[in-house]
Design goal:
By secondary structure, this protein is an alpha/beta fold. The chain has 3 domains: 80-291 and 505-509, Aldehyde Dehydrogenase, Chain A, domain 1; 295-492, Aldehyde Dehydrogenase, Chain A, domain 2, CATH 3.40.309.10; 525-553, no CATH class. The chain has helices at residues 31-35, 44-51, 82-100, 104-120, 122-133, 137-162, 198-209, 223-235, 250-260, 270-283, 305-316, 337-350, 369-384, 417-420, 436-443, 459-467, 481-485, 506-509, 533-549; strands at residues 62-66, 73-78, 165-167, 175-183, 186-191, 213-218, 243-245, 263-267, 286-290, 295-299, 327-333, 388-391, 407-410, 427-433, 451-455, 473-476, 498-499, 512-520. It binds nicotinamide-adenine-dinucleotide. Nicotinamide-adenine-dinucleotide binds next to helix 9 and helix 10.
Length: 553
């Protein structure tokens, strides 16, 4: 695995331990006052209405979620049991039949109305995402954009993928062949907490557009945001029961969600993904797995240093690093390393860390205590083994229970946990390299392969390097949004980062069964009366030679 070849640049501070560091991140003075209460839009009535959408018995056990900014209780949600999951699937099997019979035009109208509703009610959605996840409003807004783009794309392009297609028949003219696409039936969608709107709605949108019903388990911590998207989709016209949500632990209801599914769409950690894949194998159903990563950014020696430093901030710290495609390993050409590091550290130290239900903050809170613990332990482990902290490096309980400063490390070695393991927090390690081949080898020295970023002053050179990186998406002179936002193109992971793709044709066709209907108009596979099998074989051999010579594909 990668090691650092160089010493820290003169422009950066000497090594400091997290506890000895003076605050390196600006805190807006109004932060504490702003976060002591939930925003006005999140009324108890709204929260109760959304919670009531969970498929659960009236006397269901309850679970309380807490707002990451403050730790205060946020929602009281019913907990679904395996019997509730069965009930959801029973209803879904009925509603799906009628839904599959609707026209693509009708589904398109609903998705476009959903697009408009998400845009119009975005403030409520942004408040919900921030309250449940602790992210900044800017990061939450990207999810609104993602959902708008996804619903518009599948509304306007699904027909191209789903309508019956004529295919070349076995025997030209005599065989009339059509490819049909049938919905799988009822799709299970399991989604994580880090992008609560994007991860909940975007995969469901494609499944619904293809004529499936969806039973979804959003992560409990961010279930309200997922339920909000369901609420808007029904307001847009989706019949009740076509998209349903259950809440509960994977260990409690995961079995029922798998055993009833016709297809499994899972987003989460690689460890969970392996179990899901093995269960899907047992059931012989398809599964799409969007899993973890240890994403690399390569800064080539001809890169614009200021732009690359700005790009590194955008790549490493969105949603406090709790983004599957964010960068945790940064490889910089040795010749520009010192200047790049100085520019990156300087920008990172200027980031405003805090909580506010407006656009004034750069980096928000982590979402769960478990995530904070992982980040803290990994940084402490690295520092104890000799890593140097160039920025951040410590938790900030003065801002809220789960804040951690955007952190840049160097002198990271393979014996440190964060060198190879996903941190899923605002922590990046900088390494340097001497040749492009070495940079690519270092970037590829991981079992993961989700996303990468390459920076160069020469677009063609950047693209050539990108093509050699083992990752499902690679952005040139951009962090992650260029590839993620290219919704017409597939997005997903290689290696331990997953199986299957979302977006584009792959992102909707996976929710369908292909069926080939071939109508043989005149018999042509057996010898006609009066022709011996030998003569028939000779005739066919001649015909095949002619077809090849004529360039027929
Ligand atoms: P996780 O795997 O622990 O949980 C994700 C979701 O799956 C949760 O809702 C959880 O309850 C559920 N779950 C877990 N095991 C289950 C089971 N056996 N049956 C049914 N449900 C089960 O992941 P996490 O730590 O909560 O999320 C962060 C991880 O997700 C990171 O590794 C991150 O990289 C990854 N992620 C990947 C993408 C992507 O597109 N590749 C996107 C977002 C997050």
């Amino acid at each position: 695995m990668a090691t650092d070849h160089t010493t820290p640049p003169a422009a950066t501070p000497s090594a400091v331990t997290p506890s000895a560091t003076a605050p390196t991140v600006a805190v807006p003075p109004t932060t504490a006052a702003r976060t002591s209460v939930l925003p006005a839009s999140l009324t108890p009535a709204l929260i109760q209405r959304l919670a009531a959408r969970v498929v659960a018995a009236p006397d269901a056990a309850r679970v309380t979620t807490n707002a990451p900014y403050t730790g205060a209780p946020l929602a009281d949600l019913p907990v679904s049991t395996p019997a509730d999951v069965e009930r959801a699937f029973t209803r879904a099997r009925i509603t799906q039949k009628a839904w599959a019979a609707t026209s693509l035009t009708q589904r398109k109208k609903i998705l476009l109305r959903f697009h408009d509703l998400v845009m119009a009610r975005q403030d409520e959605g942004l408040d919900l995402m921030q309250a449940e996840n602790g992210k900044t409003r800017r990061d939450a807004f990207l999810e609104v954009v993602d959902i708008a783009v996804t619903s518009r794309y599948y509304a306007r392009n699904a027909a191209k993928y789903l309508e019956p297609k004529r295919r070349r028949g076995a025997i030209p003219v005599l065989t009339h062949t059509t490819e049909l696409r049938h919905p799988k039936g009822v799709v299970t969608v399991i989604s994580p907490w880090n992008y609560p709107l994007s991860m909940a709605a975007s995969d469901a949108i494609a499944a619904l557009m293809a004529g499936n019903a969806v039973v979804q388990k959003p992560d409990t911590q961010t279930a309200l945001t997922a339920l909000w998207s369901l609420d808007l989709m029904e307001e847009a016209g989706l019949p009740a029961g076509v998209w349903q949500m259950v809440v509960g632990r994977g260990s409690a209801i995961g079995g029922a969600l798998m055993d009833n599914a016709d297809y499994m769409m899972f987003t989460g950690s690689t460890a969970s993904g392996r179990k899901i894949a093995s269960d899907a194998g047992r059931r012989l159903i398809g599964a799409s797995l969007e899993l973890g990563g240890k994403n690399a950014m390569i800064v080539l020696d001809d890169a614009d240093i200021d732009k690359a430093a700005e790009g590194a901030v955008a790549a490493c710290f969105p949603s406090a690093g709790q983004l599957c495609v964010s960068v945790e390993r940064l490889y910089v050409a040795e010749s520009i390393r010192d200047r790049f590091v100085a520019a990156f550290v300087e920008r990172t130290r200027r980031l405003k860390l805090g909580a506010a239900y407006d656009y004034s903050i750069d980096v928000g809170s982590l979402t769960t205590a478990a995530q904070l613990q992982t980040v803290r332990e990994q940084v402490e482990d690295a520092v104890a083994k000799g890593a140097t902290v160039l920025a951040g490096g410590r938790a900030r309980p003065d801002l809220g229970p789960l804040f951690f400063e955007p952190t840049i490390l160097t002198d990271v070695t393979p014996d440190m946990t964060l060198c190879e393991h996903e941190t899923f927090g605002p922590v990046v390690s900088i390494y340097s390299y001497r040749s492009v081949d070495e940079a690519i080898a270092l970037a590829n020295a991981t079992p993961y392969g989700l996303n990468a970023s390459v920076w160069s002053g020469n677009g063609a050179r950047g693209r050539a390097v990108a093509a050699r990186v083992h990752a499902g998406t690679v952005n040139v002179n951009e962090a992650f949004a260029a590839a993620w936002g290219s919704i017409d193109a597939p997005m997903g992971g290689m290696g331990d980062s997953g199986l299957g793709r979302r977006h584009g044709a792959d992102g909707i066709l996976k929710y369908t069964e292909a069926q080939t209907v071939a109508h043989q108009r005149i018999q042509g596979f057996t010898p006609p009366p009066g022709i011996s099998p030998e003569t028939w074989a000779a005739l066919l051999t001649g015909a095949l030679k002619v077809l090849k010579a004529a360039g027929v594909r």
